[in-house]
Amino acid sequence: MIPNYLILQALREPEALISLSLLDWDLLIRQARRANLLARICLLLDERSLLEQVPPKPRQHLEWSRVISEKHIQAVHWEITQIRKALEKVGVPVVLLKGAAYVMAKLPSAKGRLFSDIDIIVPKDSLSVVEAALMLHGWAATHHDAYDQRYYRTWMHELPPMQHIKRMTVIDVHHAILPETAALHPDSAKLLAAAQLLDGYDDVKIFAPVDMVLHSAVHLFHNDQLDQGLRDLVDIDSLLRHFSRLPTFWTDLSVRAHELGLMRPLFYALRYAVHFLNTPVPSGMMKATQNGRPNPLTLFFTDQLFERALLPAHKSCSDWLTGTARQILYVRATWLRMPSFLLARHLFHKAFISPKPE
Amino acid sequence: MNVSALTPSELKLRLKTAGIYLQTGSFTTHLKTTIPSVAEGIGLLYADYPLVEQDCFADFHISLTRPRNLRRWFKPQALFLFDGNTIFKPLPLDQAFPMLEWGLNWCVSTHVNHCLMIHAAVVEKGGFAAIMPAPPGSGKSTLCAALVNRGWRLLSDELALIRVSDGKLIPLPRPVSLKNESIEIIRRYEPNAIFSRKVADTIKGTVAHMKAPADSIARAAEAVQLAWVIFPKYQAGATACLETLPQSRAFMRVADNSFNYSLLGLQGFKAMTNLIDASLCYDFTYSKLDDAIEIFGALKPQASHNNHTYANEL
């Protein structure tokens, strides 16, 4: 059972926020800021015309964060214009992933979002031409260590992140949504084949709705960094609520999860979206994902871990096990990424051979 | 109730346990610390600042602690935490009070977005403010410290906050940061000024903070009309000289010194345009503080501002 933290109340039922005391606001703002969800809460209130009813002090914090999010979203548009220009002659459509896709498709998940990079996916055999084109247009590789280069290029599902030398913006070029070395291996060709052109563009695509949800689930439940966990869960919640309007969405989602072998991450995504955010998932759908359910003991432990690690990294949302839960999930994510021998070798290299960051 | 209402030991205890809710300008900071030099610095330089009731809404929750590592036994350090998160790398324990000042500046400069924020000193006299944007080393804080000891009101020595909605300057009077030779220059210039202990070997050299005048702290809620943008430059032996600057050049140079001009987008551009339109812009070279005081004393606002104030009085 997850305690009824203010941040969760705010995301589930923004209407209830207008009765908060100033002291509650103080805590909510801190939890939301830590989870990178402050601007989202501002927009949730604003679209319900409730922002004016928030006391001036906390309202100011909400509005400060909205300024930052608006700037980020504007910057994403600009960055995508630049990426399209760079890849114009490559002849491969750019498929946007995650936040960039939400922004460009004007999905509700984009509301109040903050960005650290842009993710795209291209067919594996186009990786080198895409990389070369980006380099010609000012993006440069960031990981210069030979081991890191090999780590990304041989084992991972993306190139080493590339940073633009003038704008300092970062692009992650993927060719799959999970590493080559992971046990789960959804077929990128299927994902790319189902990708849809973005309204009004002939060179930019986004994943089909069900694939977008599945990618979001894979991203969250195979990620070694869960400091953005709640934000990622909010993405999933928001996508599910939005796409549930499509007539065959739920059946399509479970069929596709089967096809791509992603029942486990889908099971977790629905389970925790419901637990944390009361996402309305049809009961039939919960049943349909039961074959993604782990055995009861594993599920018991996984619940203990995620119910801690998906909360904001703020002391008001932590107990004595939170730190340990995050560490265990870090190891779990790395373990899911590669077989144990490779993992041991990787951790050994990172611990004893890689140069230490200053 | 002001900080001075607490005895030094009460203040120290309060900072160690529940923390204090300190009002600086329009911001409330919840501050906790176990470090004695920080408590002393607060008792000395923040004596005249209001304490807000405990457990109210605070804009920023910060604490200064000593990291629990092996170094604490031979090279103790200080850590600045923003709501429990480490923001900066630890500094030698000796630099804890300057670290508090830098941390408080960071709190404002990374969050506050209803104002165009410029790295500048701000002073006011007769209802009109001058902002002095300048890179470090130009003598901005020294000049600011001299002016506020000669009848000008201190709005800030670091952060000009220009409210986007009406272009008014929001005061944030806090201790004035002086470094290296400037410390002794201001001590000699105003023997009554109150200083924190000098801290050597910081990233900025030797630093000390000068207490803000009590009158400036008392008037921290009074927003002011901007009248002058002045780029100060200390130059040894130079005759004081005020040189008119074209608005276009001033615009670019103020933008260069802004924290959030680009973040604010169109609003930032409009605020910056209004700011430059409302101001007379100058380059100012000086070597003697007395000459600077005299020249600042003779500054006249744009004619349109005079009409404006008359209209308000009528």
Structure, described:
The complex is a heterodimer of chains A (358) and B (314). In chain A, 56% of the residues lie in helices and 6% in strands. By secondary structure, chain A is an alpha/beta fold. Chain A has a single domain, classed as Beta Polymerase, domain 2 (2-Layer Sandwich), CATH 3.30.460. Chain A has a seven-stranded mixed beta sheet with strand order 3-4-5-2-1-7-6, sandwiched between helices. In chain A, a hairpin with a 5-residue loop joins β4 and β5. The longest helix of chain A is centred in the first third of the chain and has 32 residues. The radius of gyration of chain A is 20 Å and the shape is globular. Chain B is α+β, with helices and mostly antiparallel strands and 314 residues long. Chain B folds into two domains: 109 residues, no CATH class; 199 residues, Phosphoenolpyruvate Carboxykinase, domain 3, CATH 3.90.228. The two termini of chain B are 36 Å apart.
What attributes does this structure have?
heterodimer, A: 358 residues, alpha/beta, Beta Polymerase, domain 2, 7-stranded mixed β-sheet, 16 helices, 7 strands, 6% strand, globular, B: 314 residues, alpha+beta, Phosphoenolpyruvate Carboxykinase, domain 3, 2 domains, 8-stranded mixed β-sheet, 6-stranded mixed β-sheet, 32% helix, disordered C terminus
Structural class of chain A: alpha/beta
Cα(first) to Cα(last) distance of chain A is 41 Å
* Beta-strand percentage range of chain A: 5-15%
| Count of helical stretches of chain B | 10
- SS-derived structural category of chain B: alpha+beta
| DSSP strand tally of chain A | 7
| Main sheet summary of chain A | 7 strands, mixed
- Percentage of residues in helical conformation of chain A: 55-70%
Overall shape of chain B: it is globular
SSE arrangement of chain B, N to C:
HEEHEEEEHEEHEEEEHEEHEEHHEHH
Q: Average pLDDT of chain A, to the nearest integer?
A: 92
Amino-to-carboxy terminus distance of chain B: 36 Å
Count all strands of chain B and give the number: 17
Query: How big a fraction of the residues of chain B is strand?
Result: 25-35%
Overall radius of gyration of chain A: 20 Å
Return the CATH class of chain A: Alpha Beta
Query: Oligomeric form of this entry?
Result: heterodimer
